[in-house]
Every structure is written in C-alpha cells, then in structure tokens.
Amino acid sequence: xxxxxxxxxxxxxxxxxxxxxxxxxxxxxxxxxxxxxxxxxxxxxxxxxxxxxxxxxxxxxxxxxxxxxxxxxxxxxxxxxxxxxxxxxxxxxxxxxxxxxxxxxxxxxxxxxxxxxxxxxxxxxxxxxxxxxxxxxxxxxxxxxxxxxxxxxxxxxxxxxxxxxxxxxxxxxxxxxxxxxxxxxxxxxxxxxxxxxxxxxxxxxxxxxxxxxxxxxxxxxxxxxxxxxxxxxxxxxxxxxxxxxxxxxxxxxxxxxxxxxxxxxxxxxxxxxxxxxxxxxxxxxxxxxxxxxxxxxxxxxxxxxxxxxxxxxxxxxxxxxxxxxxxxxxxxxxxxxxxxxxxxxxxxxxxxxxxxxxxxxxxxxxxxxxxxxxxxxxxxxxxxxxxxxxxxxxxxxxxxxxxxxxxxxxxxxxxxxxxxxxxxxxxxxxxxxxxxxxxxxxxxxxxxxxxxxxxxxxxxxxxxxxxxxxxxxxxxxxxxxxxxxxxxxxxxxxxxxxxxxxxxxxxxxxxxxxxxxxxxxxxxxxxxxxxxxxxxxxxxxxxxxxxxxxxxxxxxxxxxxxxxxxxxxxxxxxxxxxxxxxxxxxxxxxxxxxxxxxxxxxxxxxxxxxxxxxxxxxxxxxxxxxxxxxxxxxxxxxxxxxxxxxxxxxxxxxxxxxxxxxxxxxxxxxxxxxxxxxxxxxxxxxxxxxxxxxxxxxxxxxxx
Length: 704
Prior knowledge:
18 helices; alpha/beta
C-alpha cells in the first residue's frame, strides 16, 4: 500500500476521512486541513475521481527525521528523483511550513529544486526545466520540527475545480465546501433543496451532481498522476468506465431550486448549470429571499444557503434586517423544512429568532465561519415577532434613551433651523456610541470600549444598538451608517470606509453644507462646533477672517455669510479644500475676497505677512502627516501656535481657538506672559445636543 495526504479546508477533515474510508482507504491521522491515509493505487485513483471533499491528493515519497541543523538540500539529495520523473518533464516545487534552517518558503522551495536538478545534472549532464504554472510533475516538501515530508502532487490542480464553473459571484463558495455543507445539513437526494441566496449556483449544482451520482473527476482533462512513471493506465481506464456506468438516470424533475436578486450572478448560474449537465434537475429564478411568497415545493426539504454576511461590522445595518425579514418569510411558508446557514458573523443569526439544533465550524477562504442548522418546527415558526431581537435585555435601555432624546431634540432643532444634530452620545456608558441625525439619515459612531470590557460583549451590545436604531427613529436600515473602530492592532483605528461618493445637503442656521456620511471617518461637518461657527458669522461683518486647519471650510462659509470683507481658508488637504469651495458655491459665495490655501498651516503662518481681524483656529489633537515638518500635539504645541498669530492679528483683532482633546488644559500663564487676554467660552459654545457630554470640546477667545 502507498501512503497519501488528502488536503481540504478546515472543518471538512472528518467528512473527508469518512469519504476516504468509503473508498477502502486506511485513515492514519486527521489534522487541520490534512487527512493522512494508506491505500492501494486503485483506491487513490478512485478518490481523485470521486472525492467531493478533497482539494488535492498528495503521494508521500519519503519522510526523513531531522534536527534543527538539518540541511534541506542534503536530505532531498537522498531521494532518487529520476525514478519519479524524466528529464523531458517540466518541474515545479512547493515548500510548506517552517524550520530553523529555512528563512522562508521560497527559499525552501529553491533548495528542493536545486537538489532535484543537481541530481539530474550529475547523472545525465542535463537538467529538467521548471514550469511553475503548468508543470508535468509537482513536488512538495512539508517542514516539521522533527521531519521533512516529501510529497508528489498526485491529483494536480485543486479538485474543487469541477470544470463547470465559468463564472462566479462576488462571494464564491468553493465546490468542495458546498459539498461538505450539503453533507452536514443532512440533505439527501430524495428531498427538495432550496438556496435562496444562490449566487452562481454552486450549492444547488453540487446537490444535483450528488443526486446523479456523477463522479466530479470525470470532467477533468488530466490528473497529475498520469505523468508519473508509476501510473497504471489500464486500471485508471477501468475505473473511469465504471464511474460513467454508475451515473443515475433521473427523470426531468426539478430537485434543486435557486433564487437571487443579482441578475448577473443568475446569468452565471445558468451557464454553470448547463456546463454541469444538470439543467433538468435545477431551477433558478430572480427573487428576494426576504419576500418569499410560497415554498418552492409542497414536500418539505432542506434550505442550504450562503447569505451575505459582510467582512466588516460596518455592514451590520443592512444585514440585520435582511436576516430578520428572511426568517419571517421562512416562518410563514417553510414550516417542516430544515434551514442550514453558513456565516462568518454568527451574531447575525440572532436576527433569525430561531433556536439552533447544531453548529459546525468551517473556513470559507480566509474567513472562519459557522454552519448552523435550524429545524423549522411548528413551535419555531410560531415565533414571528418583527421586534428587534437583543442579546441583552438591558439593551432596551439604550432604545428608550434614544427615543426620549429624539422627542426632546426634534422640536428644539426645528426652532433652531437645524436638520442635523446629535441624538445620543454615550449617555449610558455601556452603550458607548454616538448617534447623529442628518436629515433622515443616521450615523452610528462607535467609541473605543474600555480595556476592562470584553470585546465579545462590546460587539454584542453594538449589535443591539444597531438593531434598535432604525425602529426607534423610524428609518429604513439603508439610512443608517455604522462606523466601527477596528479591534485589531495597527495604526489605523477604524475600518476603511467604502467610497460611495454620496453627498447630501444639510442646513445649519441658514447655511447649507455638503456632508458625506459613508466615505470618510468624519462627515465633513463637526456638529459640536455649531455655535462656534454661528459666533464667527455674528462677528465677521466687514472683517478680514482667517480660518486655519479649516477642514471643509464650514466656519469660513459662516464668516462669508456674516458679511466678512475677506475670508482666507487654509488646510493641508486638497480634498477638503475642494469640498470647502463646493460649500461656498452652495451658499452663493463667490469672488476674489474668498481665498483658499493648500498648505501646512504652521509653515504658511511663518511666511504669511497679512493681518486679520478675526482668526479661527481649530487644530487636530495630534498629527504626524508626512506633509508636516514635525509631528503635532495640541497640548504640547498650542502656545507656540497661538504666539505665531501675534504678527498676523490686526489691532483690536480676536482669535477664537478650539479643539476636541479631552482633558485639554490651556496654558493660560504662558499666554498671559506673551500678552494675551484669555476668555474661556467653552460652556457658551456648547450646543444643546452636546450638553450631555460637556467635555467634547473646549473653546477660547484671545485678544491683545
């Protein structure tokens, strides 16, 4: 008997081990992603032909005991490579694992390749050619602490590639994983199968092939072992003929049903179904899984599906209602069926309001997933409430507080001529988010949880927040945007925003501003500076105004609307300056009196010689931008910055200085020594909707 290693995805190993046993293989060891087994050559051929669960079959050439000092090249030279391939065959090598003498897998592969070609050169005077993409023979070395395992690729390119998939959707499920899900779901070919998020059709096609008892490998043009000197062509041909004879001939009756709202994916599904030769058993059509009208079959069956589950917590607003509405539709029309869902975000399953019967763990590409089974019994489907399903009952306190704040602030905002304001700002410490209203749309912004709070608990509380916001505020889920801090280490605290390019117009004390709720961490409008901007408008008439660290120029717009003689807007970002120009145009502010300067504000101040009557400075808390000569810290550097304004301030002029650093302490003594009079106007510039959190910003008036 020969020894083989069958490779697969994490979570499929035990199923693969059973499949190997069904083909008379003797399982030796099951480990993550690998099943080692012994088998006769004919059984190995059978597995290449019939396996629905393996991604590759490797034949073990030799395992060599090693130490920390062992040289891979010298060990590889012990193997008789000319017995395994000819000089005319092309070669490729792989290296997997780590060893003290191997810096990286590329170096390990190079050492193995050198050992092989040097042996050929010494024996024949020639060396085989390397073909990394389509070699005749591929070898692999797997490095372990105590062993080097040398393997021959027996099957060739991944066995999940059945040959029928010409196109795939945005989130493709590999064929071997689809087969594993079908196996774990308990589905049998006697039952109807339904995939309401079918995409390019992989699950339903795999089910139809199982029903037909069609060997997956029959579609393959060539297996790697066909170029091996030890190949027995006669045995192989007999096994292929037997596989063809074992195919079932089923009547033209639909067994597998697919549905999706993506017409392009459905087009690919139809192509794949035709290529797989299962069109007489499979039906796909356009339809919304959240609006199912009736069961696809009167006979109860199994629903196996791979719905959207997103790779970011920021996707939750659209996914929670999708799962919730999907479950309600199932409860209405699919009593007696079994539901089996794979997802990388198991928290989403909470929205189904179903009790699970079993859960299995798999990997789908780079994602760790759970595959969960639910039996839609009479008792299960009776639970049909559309109310948000919460992880913690105490989360309802967040919803109650949000509703209370909304009632209080709506009338105030209308009186103030505002349509964007803050509704909630970590009012309840355990629900550590900000909720901002932007004229019918809502941004939920997560704050960093304290180190003492378990990440899993914080995430579930965030789920409860997101689940309640649309209901409380009376909006649809697509009108809610969630911005979430990453939990991983790294310099970027926040998950990257999608570039949707959607701007909307909002109103503030007669000024109109463009905000972008989806593309950036901030929206383009700092709501807590609203009264400060109005103060600038009230004091700007006839004055020369300078706005430093101007962001999208909202304070500059207010200055212009207040009748400023001139407004100079300075920021380092061209993106924000262009945004500022659009805000000016939106408010009808045009003319040479409005200047926009793209520059590092500190450098610009050092070379500028103009005088200004009113200077607004709202610097960042910290910056280490490459465009700046030095990094910036507002606590450390604010005195230096303010003193740079001495030569730029006209007689009788005023500086308004603000920032958002919590626990910021202005160095009043140093500023007074420099001749400044300092007045704290933080309380006077704190808007009504931010009074729940008075430490959100500080603001000062400085005169000389």
